[in-house]
Structures are given as C-alpha cells and as structure tokens.
Amino acid sequence: MKEKRVYGFVCHSGKEKSGSEHFHEMFLVTWDGRPLHVHGFSGTTSYDAGHNHRYAGTTEPAPSGVPHTHAYCTATSFDDGHTHVIRGRTGPAVPLPNGGHIHYFEGFTTVSGRIPHVHSYSGRTTV
C-alpha cells in the first residue's frame, strides 16, 4: 500500500467536553501532495406539500487536479414549520472553458413535516 502524505493544521476548539478534556479540530490542506478545495452550493427545493425550501452549504474538501467528487450535507430553511436535510455526493468534475470546474448534484431531502413528505433538489456547485 502506497503511503499518502497529508498536511493540515490543528486548532484548539475552545469547547470543553466533560471535565478537563478538550479537543482539537484538524483542517487538511493537502492530500498526497495535492491541494484540497471546496465548492459552495445553493438552491431551492421542489414545490411539494404547499411549499418549498432554500438551502446553501459548502462541500467537503477533495484533492485538486485529479478526477474527484465531493460529499455534501446541509439543512434546508425553516418553512411550513419544519426543515429537511439534504446530503449526497456530487457528480464528477466538469471542466470549464476558461479554467476551473463545477459539479452537478441532485437528490431528495429527508422526510419531514406535519404531513410527512420529501422534496427533490438539483443544481451545480460554484467554481
């Protein structure tokens, strides 16, 4: 198995767990020598059960310069007394003519609401 070099930095969270324990968060900067990057995403769900929801978030990091996808997860806006969660994995990178790339994504929200229902969603990430 080839060894992968991972670089990042660690920050003290300032949040204490139980007693005197504390924890640190690690933010990766490179994976196997390649810089990591993220994309923003946002949109509006389908109109179902008399309403829709808005959503926005940032994908999880992925290495640059190689074929890749990104995981994503966020909660929708609070509408009609509830929220939904959207989560999934983007499609592969789609190169743009002037450089950079985007990813397409689509799926269905979790079930929620006074009348249990789901919404569909789809979109593309930012560059």
From TrEMBL:
Protein name: YmaF family protein
Species annotation: Effusibacillus lacus
